[in-house]
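Final report, closing paragraph on structural work. Over the funding period we assembled a curated collection of sequence-structure pairs, and we close with a single example.
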Amino acid sequence: MSDLKLLAIDEEDLAIISAHLQDAVVKRVDMGYVPRAQRFALLLNRFDWEGSLVENRAVRHRSGLHFERVLAVKCRGMEQAQVEGVLSLLAITFHPSEAPSGHVLLTFSGGAEVRLDVECIEASLRDLGEAWDCTCVPSHAQTAG
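Its predicted structure, as stored:
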């Protein structure tokens, strides 16, 4: 498996990054915002869905994701008592306002969210180091609709 390196500059690109990061896990302490640099970054352990289908292996990669041109960050559903808690990323979406600005929404299981107010979409995802086998494959409960 080769290391993943992706860049997003529009909604379609961001949707691809979101697909690759579905069910990635991240600790709250591994997320940070640097206002002066207008950068929000996080370290995740991403589940390799593509590799699990092709090679029939459950594998995770340590990955870095960062967003540039971030004007503000707002968190919801992440109580201070859970600073060491692990969050499971469900999706990353973009909600435009006055083009090209808007907000990027990182949605986690359990209702937690991180909202990034951005000048425009500028994100980068990169695998860091070697992948490792894992014993659990993420699953989602099916609900009748």
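The chain has one domain: 5-130. The chain has two helices and eleven strands. We thank the funder for supporting this effort.
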